What does this fold into?
Amino acid sequence: MNDTLTLYDTEVTSRFMLGTSLYPSPAIMVDAIKRSACEIVTVSLRRESGSDLEGQGFWEIIKNLDLKVLPNTAGCHTAKEAITTAMMAREVFGTTWVKLEVIGEADTLQPDVFGLVEAAAELTNQGFQVFPYTTDDLVVAERLLEAGCEVLMPWGAPIGSGRGINNPFALRAMRAHFPNVPLVVDAGLGKPSHAAQAMEMGYDAILLNTAVAKAGDPALMAESFAEALIAGRKAYHADPMEERDMAEPSTPVLGQAFLS
Amino acid sequence: MNLTVNGQAHKSDAVTLTALLEELGYKDATVATARNGEFVSATSRDVEQVEDGDKIEILAPMKGG
It folds into this structure.
């Protein structure tokens, strides 16, 4: 079964996008990335400091993996900050891809959807291919598409919470509303079963970091997520049965003995 | 002159952004720069003047989610 995913002009096979932060060590990060079989990793830009040039070493490790990188604008709270960060990232990472984050609320790290739409429009005009981290609001999603986004990344739950899909109804509605737009559940997933659920709902991919990096064995967890994604995607293609409220016997009633 | 580089006070005689990067030991590093909140591309650093009171950001690739 040919089941690739096209994100802008790039075709990928894996439906796993994995973050590079919070791992116990660079070696464990590399092991986890390899066992995840992901083709896209997220990265960021931070202040270089001192003479140890930590960022340079990190970038060498990532380059050696030979994967597609998706730079984020994490920590930006205004459209202007996010736009400037994206421009800096484009130069450093040599990609027009950007995972656009404009954060509006500190406790939930909820996107500021107004700043997000504004930044998405400007960055698209400047030739970026924007992956917006957004909520499950359908009107905001429409605005992002109008702004030029060709991929949407709604949250499953607040970043780093590991709660799984908080509002399956809303994500199901989003999937139904945008049948032809690549949709990625970004943030909040904690366990492989959450990833399988996203796939079963027809989502195209997932993006996560903490659930793997903070697991007791990140590499094993990365592999578990990869397997869950494959299982969930197959289940989606297999067309799951409809839920029902009442029981219905699976064993035939016809031919049952009368033994009372 | 007094600059703020990555949030820290820094005294410098650098005339351009390129000179400042050399002074800080980032000459050959993969970094992106901004001056007073505006992106300065690598190709513009030779001509981008640094002035007293400037806020300079020098960013490098880093882990991210």
